[in-house]
Amino acid sequence: MPMNQSIRCLTILVIDESLVIDLVNKSLTYFGHSVVAFNNINNALNAFKANPLIFDVVIVDQKYSEIVKSLFYPNDDLDARILLKNIFGVIHETPFLIWGDTIDSTELIFSQETAIYLLNKNYNALKTIGNWLNIIAQENHSISAVDKENEGEVYQLIYASKAIEDLSENDLISILTGARQSNQSTHITGTLIYHRGFFLQIIEGDKASITALFYSQIANDRRHYNVTIFHEGYALKREFPNWQMGFYGTSGNESYSLLGLTDFKKHPAGQFFRRYLTQIQKHFLHFELDDFDYLPCLILITDKNGIILKVNSELLILIGKERDDVEGKSINELFPPAGRIFLQTYVWTMLCHQGNVNEIHLKLTGQHNTRIPVILNCKRGVFEGVESYFWVFVVSVERDKFEVEILESQRRTESLLKTIFHISPNGYLLIDDNQRILFANDMIAQLIECSLEDLYFLSSGDEFWKHLACYSQKDLSIPQKIGETRYFELLKPRLIKLVCSMQSIVLSNGKVLGNLFYFNDITKEEESNRIKAEFLTHASHELRTPLASIHGYSELLEHGMISIESQPSVVHIIYEQSTWLIAMVDELLDLHRIETRSGHGFEKNNYFFNELIHETLAEFSVPKERQAVILSTFQDLTGIELYVDKIKFKQVIHAIIDNAYKYSPNGGNVSLYTRINTASNALEIEITDEGLGVAESDIPLIFERFFRVDKSGNIPGIGLGLTIAKEIMFFLNGEIDFNSIPNQGSRVVVRFYL
User: Fold this and answer.
1) Which CATH code of 3.40.120.10, 3.30.470.30, 3.30.450.20, 3.40.50.360 fits the domain covering 426-521?
2) How many Cα atoms within 13 Å fall on the side-chain side of residue 121?
3) Which CATH code is given to the segment(s) 526-597?
4) Per the count of CB atoms within 10 A, which of 211, 221, 285, 559 is most buried?
5) pLDDT tens profile 125-159
6) Tell me, what DSSP letter sits at residue 346?
7) Level-2 CATH architecture, domain 292-402
8) What is the spatial distance between Cα 104 and Cα 26, in angstroms, rounded to a whole number?
9) Is the pTM of this model over 0.90?
10) 3-state class of 676 per DSSP?
11) Helix axes 523-558 and 567-597, enclosed angle (nearest 10)
12) What pairs with residue 364 in β-bridges?
């Protein structure tokens, strides 16, 4: 089956603070990339120098550029960012991004002076970086920055794929045989692994042989599909000098009687792929790498009778035994006699009663009958569907180090929480009983237009409320009780509506730290409610008028109260009113469809503009006793094409022309001009009328839904025509401009960018 478009994994070097690294790692891993992160510039440089060719992108916090300058180039006048990139000059063509709090741009920009991408570290930064990395992955066919093979390097390609459902054992043998034949006829080596319907393969050799084999044979093999490339490029060494075939599996229904079974954990490819693939790729591939065996602590699992079901390598190394000597045996055999007695009389008793034990000091039997002091924690659970017990041991001599690591982890967690609070769109303000500001996030500082540093220097929380009151439209009412809610309307830094509530922060010792004020921006929700209210008001009024007319005349006809001579005119009125009613409902439904589907229902194609505009005007029904639209063009537009949805294009033009006729009830020309605007590289359609015009104060509202220039109700409509037209133009990569002079007419310019 032909290969789908390749999904490429970038290897990214990140240098940032500890509190950000975890967040960056998880975010970029979500986008399918592999992250190598450091919070120490020297460690990062050492890792980079050891193997510079594996990194496809470098991302650095801006403060490290100043650190590098102070450490290595204190007297150099060059820009610190340029100095930082010079250190990574080995991969000068690799995208290089610096982000930080003092960088102005909230959108990723490229600096020509420094040849570096720059980005402000705001709450949208990680999403911006993720999208940027995906563009880089799509633009570069080869992830490696190396354009030619250097001495000692080998070309590598790593891919995964899904086997077809009816793949047989004979198919697997054929694939294995073909791979070995390729190995014999070329200098290609590598490994091929199959498990639970998935293939994972790395091939190494010269570039010509690798690309020929993969793109002409492997990618087009109909026995697999969804072929996904994780890496393609030069490596510094050959990982698999001899061809290794690994068909493995610890569960499932595959038969391996003819296929040389191997354990993936012991297979040479196992450790390689464990280092190379990110966690998200492991889950995508369905390759069940046994993480239990690689846990850094000492752990085993027993059944309810104490028989060991599973033990990890760390514990086996500590006690100096082989797996077969431990698994299937009683846990008692791991302890000296005194420990066995304590295990039976106390530990198992506690496990049976409460399901867990914590902080039990025991000794394991090590090599040559040595005694190893450990701290035991055990908990009841389920393993492979059976009630089991999970035993975790910590060597006592490492306890101090373990506690230090826990404290460090707590500090990282605290820092991460602070980061999350700072990038939150909502506001958090913590004030103690003495009215001191203990914590505030970025949104709080923005509310009173100052920096976080200046905010903390305020003399008290009361001073903050005074600043906020200066921007309030009404008297500021501050929450005084727990759970109390207050509504604020502020004029600065923009028109904003907030809900403020208060909760007490109580520490584990029962002491009240202070009151946390939570600010939620409800501006959008209020605007949404306003639009709904306007919709009900306008729609009910506009729909009621034709319905009342139809109902009234129908009732007169039913009771024979209209003469035969007058019946045709009454029927015509009913027809016109029902037609108008249908048009209004269609407009409402059309606006809803456009907004909810976000342009996904548009069917765009290339159309010759001259044919399209003539067809559009021919289909428009000119009102009775009015002249047709006057079409003029100032340039030869023959051969000009527009990439649009034809039906939506006509709908926009018809809506604007219809308005031009409706709002010039006293007559006058309706004209349409077409031209190419070379300055903006756009095709423009200008529609003018000689009608009532629009007051200058109403022009900003002209595209608002349900806005009507005519307040008398004499001109039919519900105020959605231009709203729909603007929504459509957004999805057609265009825009609409509106200008008008009262009592002289209006001019609408529809612009399509070429």
Assistant:
1) 3.30.450.20
2) 19
3) 1.10.287.130
4) 285
5) 887 888 888 777 765 443 333 333 444 578 888 88
6) I
7) 2-Layer Sandwich (3.30)
8) 25
9) no
10) strand
11) 160
12) 372
